[in-house]
């Protein structure tokens, strides 16, 4: 049984991989007649003798593109292992953080900016609150 909640909604629409496209991608990756390296373990795959699938080098769930250049043949066994040991944990992590991997939506303070309690906003680090407090210890709750 597959827990559907554990899988990610696809940000990239997952088109059906036609046999023609599958073999086209295989051919593009061929290093010998009907043989292409597995993109996961590097061992050769034989087009007719091995079980193989087209693997997305960058998972769709991690915003990989559904393009031929993002695809390469892989042994079924290797792909299954990768999906469960690598991609799904990465995808879950990306989901937990609420942002797609790679583009962090987290707020980051620009360089040279500090938070001024007095002004209750971010100010340039080289801007002093006021001349009178210069040299005096600053305290967020200081009454003046
Ligand atoms: Zn392999």
Describe this structure in words.
The protein is an alpha+beta fold. Strands 1-2 form a two-stranded antiparallel sheet. Strands 3-4 form a two-stranded antiparallel sheet. It has two helices and six strands. The mean pLDDT is 79. The relative contact order is 0.12. It has a domain at 19-97. It is elongated. The site of zinc ion has 7 residues, from strand 4.
Helix content: 10-25%
Bound molecules: zinc ion
Biggest beta sheet summary: 2 strands, antiparallel
**How do the SSEs run, as a string of H and E?**
HEEEEHEE
The stretches of 5 or more residues where confidence is low (pLDDT under 50) are none
**What is the beta-strand fraction?**
15-25%
Give the terminus-to-terminus CA distance.
Answer: 66 Å
**Strand order, largest beta sheet:** 1-2
Average residue-wise pLDDT: 79
Question: Number of helix segments?
Answer: 2
Query: What is the gyration radius calculated from CA atoms?
Result: 26 Å
């Amino acid at each position: 049984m597959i827990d559907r909640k554990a899988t990610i909604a696809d940000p990239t629409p997952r088109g059906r991989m036609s046999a023609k496209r599958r073999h086209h991608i295989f051919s593009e990756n061929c290093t010998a007649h009907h043989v292409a390296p597995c993109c996961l373990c590097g061992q050769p795959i034989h087009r007719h003798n091995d079980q193989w699938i087209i693997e997305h080098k960058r998972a769709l769930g991690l915003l990989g593109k559904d393009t031929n250049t993002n695809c390469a043949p892989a042994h079924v066994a290797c792909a299954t292992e990768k999906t469960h040991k690598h991609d799904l944990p990465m995808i879950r992590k990306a989901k937990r953080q609420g942002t797609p991997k790679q583009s962090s939506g987290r707020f980051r303070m620009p360089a040279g900016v500090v938070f001024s309690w007095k002004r209750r906003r971010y100010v340039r680090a080289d801007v002093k609150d006021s001349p009178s407090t210069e040299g005096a210890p600053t305290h967020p709750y200081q009454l003046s």
